[in-house]
Amino acid sequence: MTNQQAGMVVAIEHAKRFLLTICPMQELPNEYVQSIVGAYRDNSISFYQALHEFRQIERELEAMVNVNVYLNNVIEGKEE
Fold it and tell me: In the structure, how many helices (H) and strands (E) does the chain have?
């Protein structure tokens, strides 16, 4: 695994934790994610079960992380 790949994995895991714990429900991307987060916040499922469910939307999370990285680079004036 390259450093870039490892960084992406870490960023995706941070995105999962953010969605499960901090992100307001109305800002979650779709009903599927809202149902997972709602179940986790209601203590109907464990953290690990929620993470397992998020594996199904891993590509969407990766796209979200890529957009955030791109926007950070634009804001900081970095070239890709």
Answer: 4, 0
